[in-house]
């Protein structure tokens, strides 16, 4: 006889909880980070980490086991081709939970659960933009120093000519 999981429950039946965790895991792997309640984030963390461990192994058996949980093939493909290899040398701890305060409507404690070391497209673009800005500032500084040194040389030459005339 199947026994219910010990600890906090996430809603009605065991089937509802199973589907809820599968959908949360799908959203996490699709977006890299999701905002949910603390209880759901705490229940999702070991569930998602088991799926990432299966993705790290990458064989057909593990892919089929993940497909039983996450039915969206594109998300499973992303999990096995991008997320799994990213954590190849990491022995665990693929997710991070950050508490963000309470929800306005019902005062439920909220949290952000995200994949560790995950660079989203926006973060990569921001990093590239910051690097370009730093390079531009450095180039401008080098150009400014070069023009100042030219000005100093011409002033020295003019002073030398005036001393010759005197």
TrEMBL record:
<keyword id="KW-0689">Ribosomal protein</keyword>
<keyword id="KW-0687">Ribonucleoprotein</keyword>
<dbReference type="GO" id="GO:0022625">
    <property type="term" value="C:cytosolic large ribosomal subunit"/>
</dbReference>
<dbReference type="GO" id="GO:0003735">
    <property type="term" value="F:structural constituent of ribosome"/>
</dbReference>
<comment type="subunit">
    <text>Part of the 50S ribosomal subunit. Contacts protein L32.</text>
</comment>
<feature type="region of interest" description="Disordered">
    <location>
        <begin position="132"/>
        <end position="166"/>
    </location>
</feature>
<dbReference type="InterPro" id="IPR036373">
    <property type="entry name" value="Ribosomal_bL17_sf"/>
</dbReference>
<dbReference type="InterPro" id="IPR000456">
    <property type="entry name" value="Ribosomal_bL17"/>
</dbReference>
<comment type="similarity">
    <text>Belongs to the bacterial ribosomal protein bL17 family.</text>
</comment>
<dbReference type="Pfam" id="PF01196">
    <property type="entry name" value="Ribosomal_L17"/>
</dbReference>
<dbReference type="GO" id="GO:0006412">
    <property type="term" value="P:translation"/>
</dbReference>
<protein>
    <recommendedName>
        <fullName>Large ribosomal subunit protein bL17</fullName>
    </recommendedName>
</protein>
<dbReference type="InterPro" id="IPR047859">
    <property type="entry name" value="Ribosomal_bL17_CS"/>
</dbReference>
């Amino acid at each position: 006889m199947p026994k219910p999981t010990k600890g906090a429950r996430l809603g009605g039946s065991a089937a509802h909880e199973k589907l809820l965790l599968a959908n949360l895991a799908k959203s996490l792997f699709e977006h890299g980070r999701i905002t949910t309640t603390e209880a759901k984030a705490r229940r999702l963390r070991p569930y998602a980490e088991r799926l990432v461990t299966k993705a790290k192994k990458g064989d057909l058996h593990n892919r089929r086991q993940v497909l039983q949980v996450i039915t969206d093939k594109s998300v499973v493909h992303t999990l096995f081709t991008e997320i799994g290899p990213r954590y190849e040398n990491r022995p665990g701890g693929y997710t991070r939970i950050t508490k963000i305060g309470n929800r306005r409507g019902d005062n439920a404690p909220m949290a952000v659960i995200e994949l560790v070391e995950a660079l989203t497209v926006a973060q990569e673009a921001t990093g590239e933009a910051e690097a370009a800005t730093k390079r531009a500032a450095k180039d401008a500084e080098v150009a400014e120093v070069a023009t100042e040194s030219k000005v100093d040389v011409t002033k020295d030459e003019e002073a030398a000519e005036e001393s010759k005339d005197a």
